[in-house]
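Backbone-to-sequence.
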């Protein structure tokens, strides 16, 4: 687009309006490059709606450090909508755009990003164990081009089952939904198995890789004889939170997950890392990298905030009385 000459009677606001009109027609990244503005590629295996609170926390973290989107930094978002097979193409797109930093969410997309580029710095927000899964060499000295945070905490899955058992003392057989292709999901099954032995609860596991698998798994859970439901972390479940919460309530199954959003939608209980806090803290890594730090030399940090949420209304519908001690412990109580 040709801009009007600055000569004659052209006023400042006319010039600014012309600039604004030009910006609308240019791709965001191209416009950012024209202004020498760094670009962060934000990759999510979830949907835009699901990711919005976490990405909002990331933007607030950037703003606190002086980075204002559209002023001195640009952000390119890519969403897989729970479809893991889309992740490699989304990463390839960000690599083609030559973004300055890639922000990833969980283990699988962090692994995929690492495999796609060895030159663009990668900041992880909430993967599981990045050492055990081969993403980095160590927490203290990651090496390569990957750093960030981890939501890895010992026995957190077992603690989740302890809370559920406290809330539903008659729990004896729990159906477990997990993704067998996700190493962190598989680790979670192992942790859950150890906790279930302590609590005298039997496990019946159902592998879910796709939405079609989820259909079959829920049909199988309904006839499995389970009187509880445990859902292990994975994007396929995050993008089906309402469906899972409704299923558990309809089948009268006390249920647990790691995100409080599940409880807001009608699930019984959640216990996990405060993911918004991790995303807020991820902004500090982006800040350091954009100021010249080497990603592989930035130690990986672990979570410091956790969230226990209970839906009292769901408990009542299931005939469960929530102990006052548990209510006092909870960070969120949905009435």
């Amino acid at each position: 687009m040709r801009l009007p000459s600055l000569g004659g009677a052209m006023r400042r606001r006319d010039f600014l309006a012309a600039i604004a009109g030009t910006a609308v027609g240019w791709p965001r990244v191209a416009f950012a490059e024209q202004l020498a503005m760094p670009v962060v590629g934000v990759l999510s295996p979830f949907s835009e709606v699901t990711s919005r609170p976490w990405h909002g926390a990331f933007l607030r973290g950037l703003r606190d450090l002086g980075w204002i989107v559209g002023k001195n930094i640009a952000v390119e978002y890519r969403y897989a909508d729970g479809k893991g097979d889309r992740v490699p193409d989304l990463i390839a797109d960000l690599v083609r755009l030559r973004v300055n930093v890639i922000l990833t969410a969980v283990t699988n997309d962090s692994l995929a990003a690492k495999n796609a580029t060895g030159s663009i710095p990668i900041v992880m927000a909430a993967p599981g164990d990045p050492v055990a899964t081969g993403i980095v060499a160590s927490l203290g000295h990651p090496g390569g081009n990957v750093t960030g945070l981890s939501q890895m905490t010992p026995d957190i899955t077992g603690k989740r089952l302890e809370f559920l058992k406290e809330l539903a003392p008659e729990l004896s057989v729990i159906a477990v939904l997990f993704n067998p292709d996700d190493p962190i999901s598989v680790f979670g099954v192992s942790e859950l198995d150890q906790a279930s032995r302590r609590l005298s609860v039997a496990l019946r596991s159902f592998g879910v890789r796709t939405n079609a698998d989820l259909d079959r798994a829920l049909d199988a859970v309904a006839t499995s004889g389970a009187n509880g439901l445990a859902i292990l972390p994975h994007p396929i479940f995050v993008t089906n939170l309402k469906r899972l919460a409704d299923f558990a309530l309809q089948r009268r199954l006390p249920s647990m997950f790691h995100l409080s959003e599940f409880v807001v939608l009608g699930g019984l209980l959640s216990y996990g890392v405060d993911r918004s806090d991790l995303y807020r803290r991820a902004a500090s890594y982006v800040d350091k990298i954009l100021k010249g730090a080497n990603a592989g030399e930035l130690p990986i940090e672990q979570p410091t905030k956790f969230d226990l949420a209970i839906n009292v209304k769901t408990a009542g519908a299931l005939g469960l009385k929530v102990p006052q001690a548990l209510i006092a412990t909870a960070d969120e109580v949905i009435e």
